[in-house]
Amino acid sequence: MGERTDQAGVLQGWIGTLGFFILVVAGIMFFVTFSNPQLRSICLIALGVALVLIAIAAYRAWRVRQVLGTAELKLDAPIPLGFNGNATYSRPLRGAEMRSIEVRLQCEEEIVRGSGKNKGRVTKIVHDEVLTATVTPRMERLEVRIPVKIPATGPATFSCSTAQTKWWIRLRLKMSGCPNTASSFEIEVVPGLAHL
Question: pTM for the full model?
Answer without folding.
Answer: 0.70
